Structure formats: C-alpha cells, structure tokens
Amino acid sequence: MKNFLFLGIAIIFEIIATSALKKSEQFTQLLPSIITFIGYAGAFYFLSFAIRTIPVGVAYAIWSGVGIVLITIIGAVFFKQIPDLPAIIGLALIIIGVIVINVFSKTASH
C-alpha cells in the first residue's frame, strides 16, 4: 500500500511540474522553470519507488491517466482551457481504463 502512496506523490509532483511548464513560457521564466525541473525530478523519483512492487505498466497507466485528468481540470480552472465534448469523452475513457486496470486486472495485484 505504501507504493500507492509513492505513486500518489509522484502524480502530485507531475501535475505541479506540468502546470509550471505552462507558466515557464518555454523556460524563459526562471521560477516556473525551476519548479518544472524539480517537479519532474520528484515525480520520477517517487515513481521509481512505486514501481518496485506495482507493475511498471500499471503504475504508468495510473500515473499518466490521473495526471491527464487533473491537468485538464487545472487547465480549465487556471488557464481557461475548457475541454470540448470529445475531450471529455476521451477523459472519461481514460478514467474507465484506470478503473478497469485496478479493479479487474490480475496484473495490478502483483
């Protein structure tokens, strides 16, 4: 269970880094650029702990799927990037995929 905590921390670092990446303006803004580098380093650091016991494909599916959904929400709230219906349907499919992996896949339990 601790490895899912590490995965959650990796996701938090990743969404912080990706949000800062938007603000870095192609790495021309110092503080957001530093936050981006630290955030991605932290994300991969904690992801490396998570994949010690969570299969790498499952961990990556959860990490990227949850990250995509959270970044989309952050984009809508803070950057006024409102997803259209096809994007919302795609996000719903990602969420369904992560649920299927966690609930039904025997791979996820190894």
Model description:
By secondary structure, this protein is an all-alpha fold. It has one domain (2-109). 78% of the residues lie in helices and 0% in strands. The protein has helices spanning 2-23, 30-50, 56-78, 85-104. Helix 1 packs antiparallel against helix 2 (30-50) and helix 1 (2-23) crosses helix 3 (56-78).
Structure described in brief:
This protein has helices spanning 2-23, 30-50, 56-78, 85-104. By secondary structure, it is mainly alpha-helical. The protein has one domain (2-109).
Q: Mind telling me the C-alpha Rg?
A: 15 Å
Any idea how many domains? 1
> What structural class do you assign from the helix and strand content?
mainly alpha
Mean pLDDT across residues: 93
Low-confidence stretches: none
What string, H for helix and E for strand, traces the elements in order? HHHH
Shape, principal axes of CA atoms:
flat
Provide a count of the helices: 4
- Estimate percent helicity: over 70%
Q: Which percent band covers the strand fraction?
A: under 5%
Largest sheet: none
SS elements, strand count: 0
Span of the ends, CA to CA: 12 Å
Which terms would index this structure?
110 residues, flat, 0% strand, mainly alpha, single chain
Helix and strand topology:
Blueprint: H1 2-23, H2 30-50, H3 56-78, H4 85-104
Helix pairs in contact: 1-2, 1-3, 3-4
